[in-house]
Specification:
Length: 268
């Protein structure tokens, strides 16, 4: 992939930093009230969507369209706005809608800018927690918390004997399949909390994150943040994480190879 010029990184990361603040203000001024919930699966399971999901996505789309009118937009709730541009924005207006519904503060707004299908700049904004994560280049990412900016770095010295693992399989692995990964189950000692787990990984607070069945809007915004913090991210088959699906993040190559082997019996 052709590297972006520094000025472009600055342009796009600055846009996302400003958007994070606007999204938090939008939540507290317009959405911090009673909302309606519906189930996308209509009796075939539970996949909630709220009026807030839709309001957030409309707000994000309007900001992108105003600043970058030629760019494509792909959103979880309103689909594809197609153009001839090589740039596309991928939006998850509320990652963790279940958390949002029950008042858990771990939900976030996730947005990535992709170039020819590859995520290059990402944002994970947590309005209730008053912080957001973003990358300023392919080498540097930050968290801004309570107005203070701090550089992110994974815990690259982590080893198997002290590894901090967060994983969630969301019922995609059957009980029989779970029996094939007993070591993974034993090592799952830290909670998995939506995109916050990936963000904590980039901040060195977790050493491994493994999740099932990510959609592109679940993972694309986090890929550039993780990579810029020094993390390794692939599918469970060690393929390009931009494909989404089953995702593994590791703090160093040795850990990554070990966990790929442990997950191999259930990697599909």
């Amino acid at each position: 992939m052709k590297k972006l010029e520094k000025i472009n990184y600055k342009l796009y990361s600055s846009f996302l930093r400003n958007l994070a603040r606007e999204l938090t203000n939008f939540y507290y001024s317009k959405l911090n009230k009673t909302f309606k919930i519906s189930n996308k699966l209509k009796g075939r399971g539970y996949d909630p969507v709220t009026t807030s999901d839709k309001a957030f996505e409309k707000f994000i789309r309007s900001k992108i369209s105003k600043k970058f009118p030629d760019h494509q937009i792909i959103g979880e709730e309103f689909g594809l706005k197609k153009s001839k541009s090589d740039f596309s924005w991928v939006i998850d207006p509320i990652d963790g809608t279940r958390s949002y519904v029950i008042g858990n503060p771990t939900w976030s707004n996730l947005i990535s800018l992709n170039y020819k299908g590859q995520p290059i700049v990402g944002l994970a904004n947590f309005p209730i927690l008053k912080k957001f994560y973003f990358n300023a280049s392919d080498k540097i990412s930050f968290v801004v918390e309570n107005g203070k900016k701090r550089k992110l770095k994974v815990n690259s010295s982590a080893k198997m004997n002290n590894v901090k693992v967060s994983a969630a399989f969301h019922n995609y692995l059957t009980p029989n399949k779970l029996k094939k990964i007993p070591k993974i189950l034993k090592l799952m000692q830290f909670p998995c909390a939506d995109a916050l787990s990936y963000s904590h990984f980039a901040d060195g607070k977790l050493d491994i994150v493994a999740q099932c069945s990510n959609k592109i809007w679940d993972i694309h915004p986090l890929i550039p943040i993780i990579k810029a913090a020094g993390g390794i991210v692939t599918t469970w088959k060690n393929e390009d994480p931009a494909k989404a699906g089953h995702i593994l993040c590791s703090a160093n190559k040795k850990l990554h190879n070990n966990f790929l082997k442990l997950l191999k019996p259930v990697a599909e």
